[in-house]
Amino acid sequence: MFNEFEQAMIVIVAIAAVILVLYFILKRSSTPKPHSNQSQNNDIPEVVIQEPQIEPLSEVPLYGIEEGDFGVIAPVREDQLKELTDRRKSDHIIQKRSVPEYIKITKQNFAEFAGERILVAEDNHINQKVILGLLADSGIEVVMANDGQEALDILENDANFLMILMDAHMPRIDGFEATRTIRENPKYDHIVVVALSGDIATDDIQKMKDAGMSEQLAKPLRMESLYKIIYAYTGEKMHKDKGIEAVENKSFDTAKGLETCGGDENFYREILAEFMADYGNSPDRLGELLRASNIQDADAHLLDIIGVAANIGASSLGEVASNMKLALGDTHEQSYFSLFDQYKVKFDRLIEDIRAYL
């Protein structure tokens, strides 16, 4: 006979065995049978899911995230290509000119656009202050609207604007809807609409282009980007209309040049014409000398430029030429090559302005 302890152990082992058996039975019954149907109808055929056929894609230019340019490449389906092409043909087009490269843009450069008028549709008061601050004392008239509806109301009574800086997301009427309304009215065909947006998502960029916005400026607004946009759409008429006043704010000072010529403007114009004839190929000539390591002749050429630049009032070009002349002694690092790039930009800009003045 078993004692009480042994009897208790037998009972415990038996209970554990029963629990273990029950566990395996329950686990097996809860496992779903493969290919079983929820319905009791065994006649329902098995459903086979086929992968969808993907249409071929064609890469065509869409509208991207770069400032001032809606030119990103994105895939478009063949069946969308004709619709996209037709829409492009009907896109509103305003002529623009190419923008030269600049060393540095400051607030003073905006004085070149004195007399132009810009409508700004922006609901954020801090952003309004930034734009007003950038264009302060430039001579550009800035009219401010707090949303798209205000912008439309202003245009209804006054459409004499070069461009509209249009915030994309505003209360009441947003920038997209306001731009669509503007583009539908031929009375506003001369006005460029520039999107202001901190959102560079692809769908938002597409909405900007579809609405009729011509350009994009990212937030926070950068001085150089704003300058280039305004420059691109002012056109050459600006220099012809404003004459000396516009040129004085640019690459040469006509007042200094006229003083050198004793106030004789005809004589001054002759000097400018001779400068273009004698030194019009200066960047090409100087580049050849530097690449050939002909430091002596490069030094002599720059000395001529420094003297002539002082006579015609082109102090900016003269300054770069002086710095280059000093750098010619650095034959090891050849730092004058980086200054040569600045010289070419300054020189090309000077020639452009002289042509406008003449």
Tags for this entry?
14 helices; alpha/beta; 358 residues; two-stranded antiparallel sheet
> How many helical elements?
14
Number of strands: 7
| Helix content range | 40-55%
**Could you tell me the radius of gyration in angstroms?**
36 Å
Secondary-structure-based class equals alpha/beta
Query: Mind telling me the CATH class of one domain?
Result: Alpha Beta
Shape annotation: elongated
CATH superfamily assignment of one domain? Response regulator
Let me know the average pLDDT.
75
Strand portion, in percent? 5-15%
Second rung of CATH, namely the architecture of one domain? 3-Layer(aba) Sandwich
Report how far the terminal alpha carbons are from each other.
131 Å
Q: What is the element string, with H for helices and E for strands?
A: HEEHEHEHEHEHEHHHHHHHH
Kindly report the CATH topology of one domain. Rossmann fold
